[in-house]
Amino acid sequence: MQCTTKPLDSITALTQEAQSDSGANRVVTNDISLLHNLEHIDPIGMGGCNANTPNAITCTARGLLRLTSIDERQIYVRAYYSKEVDGTIISPTTLVR
Predict the structure, then answer these.
(1) Cα–Cα distance for residue pair 85/60, rounded to 1 Å
(2) The whole model's pTM is what?
(3) How far apart, in Å, are the Cα atoms of 47 and each of 38, 52, 53, 86?
(4) Which residue blocks in 1-97 are alpha helix, DSSP H?
(5) Beta-bridge partner residues of 67
(6) Which of 63, 68, 67 is nearest to 79 (CA)?
(7) pLDDT tens across 37-51, in order?
(8) Contact by Cβ (8 Å): 41, 62
(9) 83: pLDDT confidence band, cut at 50, 70 and 90?
(10) Region of 37 on the Ramachandran plot (φ > 0 left; ψ -120 to 50 alpha; else beta)
(11) CA–CA separation, 7 and 25 (whole Å)
């Protein structure tokens, strides 16, 4: 059997730690300084994976989070701020819309 996968030319390390969560429906961060065009909003409860906790976190701001690809292309995605989140959660579906 012949392998047709091309090996990577290089590996680039992330400068900001983030978690890609295939079950996430939104992008949420606990670092408000990452958000551009920030606006404070009325608190919005967002659920988690636990059915017994319908409002696992509360978001109090939203803005645009800049993401940079390995080839230096930048996109901005809508993101929410919650002090209760541990880091930054990236929803893969946000990137393909």
Answers:
(1) 12
(2) 0.71
(3) 22, 9, 7, 15
(4) 92-96
(5) 75
(6) 63
(7) 999 999 998 876 555
(8) yes
(9) very high
(10) left
(11) 32
